[in-house]
Amino acid sequence: MNVRQRQGQKTKKKIIEAAIALFHERGFNNVTVDEIVAVTNTSKGAFYNHFTSKHEVFAEQFKQIDQFYVEHLVPQLDADQSVIERLTRFLELQMNYLQDELGWDVTRTIYEQELSTERSSYFLDPDRPLYDILFTLCQEGIDKGEFKEGYSAHDIVTVLIHGMRGVLYNWSLNRGRISLADEQRMMFGALLDGLSAE
């Protein structure tokens, strides 16, 4: 990577961090590209060199969230534990991260933006690292006989993803006034108990 490319990556990172902070503080719809440019002391040209819209900043944040799961959450899982225990721990760490680092308003805005019919949703991207994490764990669980017979890894991942969306959507609707940690514990406890072979 040459000096110009490194500078470009630095500018892109600065724009993402500033934009996400503004979205978190004031709400996505209340932040303009002009404000992002002003806060980062860059130009509109620099912004549009990296992003076509505010939504693309969110899309980039999605990728960073998934990368965080790969780099920071998965290494915290104990390989000596059962797959069910590791899934339970991963989901707990994930929801704590979303509650403590992203917050309900940014989560709500992500859902709002992902409902747009003008673009495809990152939620549905089959290549998301999140799906790979879950699929790998679920396939291991099937191979070890930890799940009830008749479910494929795809089936189990689908149930878990729908559970995630439900918990996060409900938390967002309640404007963060309920505990995401408690909600996820109840939801995923019930789902994993129902899927478990024991």
From TrEMBL:
Keyword DNA-binding: yes
Top-level taxon of the source organism: Bacteria
Record flagged with keyword DNA-binding: yes
Pfam families: TetR_N (PF00440)
InterPro entries registered for this protein in UniProt: Homeodomain-like_sf, HTH-type_Tx_Regulator, HTH_TetR, Tet_transcr_reg_TetR-rel_C_sf
The entry's DNA-binding region: 32-51
Annotated keywords: DNA-binding
Domain HTH tetR-type, chain residue ranges per copy: 9-69
SUPFAM superfamilies in UniProt: Homeodomain-like, Tetracyclin repressor-like, C-terminal domain
Protein name per its UniProtKB record: TetR/AcrR family transcriptional regulator
